[in-house]
Please model this.
Amino acid sequence: MKKLNLKLVALVLCLLISTLIFPKNSLALSTPSTPTNLTATVASSNQIYLTWNPVSSATYYYVYRATTTSGTYTNIASITTANYTDSSLSLNTTYCYKVLAVNSAGTSSDSSIVYATTTNSSGVPSTPTNLIATVASINQINLTWDPISSATYYYVYRSTSPYGTYSIVAVPTTTNYTDPNLSINTTYYYKVQAVGSVGTSSDSSIVYATTIVSNGALSAPTNLIATVASSNQIYLIWDPASYTTYYDVYRSTSPNGTYTIIAVPTTPNYTDSNLSLNTTYYYKVQAVNSSGSSSFSSTVYATTANSNGALPAPTTLTTTVANSNQMYLTWNPVSSAAYYYVYRATSPSNAYTNIATITTTNYTDFNLSQNTTYYYKVQAVNSSGLSSFSSIAYATTANTDNTAPPDAPPDASSQIQSDRLAGEDMYETSAEVAESGWKTSYYAFIVSGENFSDALCSAPLAQKYNAPLLLTPKDTLNEQTKTQLLRLKVKNVIIIGGSGVVSSVVEQSIKSMGIEVSRIAGNDRYETSIKIAQSMGQFNQAIIASGDTFPDALSIAPIAAMKRIPILLTPKDSLPQSVRAYLLKNVQSTYVVGGTGVVSENVLKQLPSPKRLSGINRYETNISIIKEFADELDFNLCYISTGEYYADALAGSTLASLTNSPVILVSNPVDQSTIDFFRDKTSSIKKEIVFGGTVVVPESVLISLNGTTVGTDTPSTPAGVSATTVSSSQINLTWESVSGATSYYVYGATSSSGTYTHIATVTTTSYANTGLWADTTYYYKVQAVNSAGSSSDSPLAYAKTT
Model:
């Protein structure tokens, strides 16, 4: 018993001593702290080296990797050292990393995320990203960019125009540069290359900044516009002024009265609410920053409506069936109306679409489906606002296919009606599109037929104004476009792009027709896309497309117009700062059109809630976009356009949006993904309309899509082709008419056995070839064309200019 007591005493003493020597908190191991100072360094074209500060209580570390900062991270290593080399990586790819410390008590929280980009196979440095230009003073601009690990130094290039000649102005070894001794109030454009031991990277994206005027004063806001939004609201918008912190908005009830500050917005727009009915308000705006205020903008004014019913609604709206695809509308005039909005739906309870803005009291609705009931209503409009809607009228188009017996099998070749909107060139085609969709229009948009970038984003804004898109060359107003402006009775033209895209000569030509003209233009295509978006008003979605190529933006243009959401442009690898800032402030989610070859993952990860719509080529991307919005599209009518040129589809995008119709891009031969999708939708499609002639979309393309042939023979070969010299720069061609031909292809070359270029498509049997070189022999051949195809080549004809 005594021995037992001694053992118990000894045990108690041991426990007491252990408690004194080893406190409780030293016995219980805690989870390790978070690793710090994680660094990623490019080791080669397929290796990245990671290091971090060791964590004292860590037994080992988990290394996680992803290809985007917000993507899914995978555990790629469990190591005991505070460094790791990640090998066998893809070339020229950005990898993101985070690290966790681990012991028997658990795992730490994530370290900060770092990333690095592997070099390409030759060891040439990657392209610099996130180039930013900031005005430092009246004659200095600061540049910064992200470092490239394999770069020894950088080339900094400068120009005074985005497409001008760039000169090297500096060769820094750091990732920043201050450009001194610049001219005041001048815009400068910059790009940067990284240089390593084995070569030079490609150019970064281009950025720009404008030095301020000598006294530091701000420029006054320009293009202030006041628009009546309702009986008690007026909406103001103006062009942003550089270096502005905010704006002072002033209001008065007389042009020479006392103006009071009513708002201090940071954006170049403002909605003035709670106004009195039937009252004229005058506005002017100042730009403000830390150096002071600008001079005032010009003064504008607008008059609120009397009330929502001040303008009487149109009465006695009547619909009359003209034929199987046309409806004729008439209504009684409203004496105080400036013009009318015509709305259409396919059900009295469905959403009505504004299909026309006209100044007359009648309207012919074209390109309707057979045997379909359409519902219409009309509003009167003047400077005070809108009337209430007219009563709804409706009628059902005729069914022309009434000759076959009820049990006869369908004729495959007639299941889908086919039509073309085409002219001899892109300008005439855009005119045909306008004539098809608009009888009259208060507004029209003028875009370049030679430079796609600015024009790409214009379709949604044109749809907002229910206006056609018309094309013109840079330096002269196209005659077909001029004819359409007169036919449509256009009162207001909006030119998209600066004078370098659509010249002041064109602007003046339009003004001389008695038409008001305004421009939407930025310093480059990216800023222009932002200005177009600003003109559209409020939205929470946007589309991001390449500013370097046109097909993907074309694919989504009619859908963007239908949904009234803007298209913003970006270079492939670096989202412009101005676009990024605009998105973060105004947009909750984005659609990215095109694969990583046109809009990189680096751009995608900077966007709000992005969703990519893409395929392996432009045609698969087109189908991917249409599938995404299929539930919102009406496949009764489909438009078809070449995917090789932008002009025809661009002109047609607003027309397609009026009926919620898709625009399907095609190649020759047709991409299989396009054929599969079209065939799958054949039962829904009642009519197809092709933008452009058989040169851009041959009949063989339609046969591939529809899986049918037509019963027309190809025309015979033109005979009697003759070439006659007119001058040192002109040769005239004539030939005999071919029975069954609907047009003719004219080809030319400078040697009899050389490469012949298609130079014209004409509907007559003559052609004047102008703009030729003096003292040069030209060779010609002609083909006759109809819906079945083209004839063989005519015999050659030639002539020599004087």
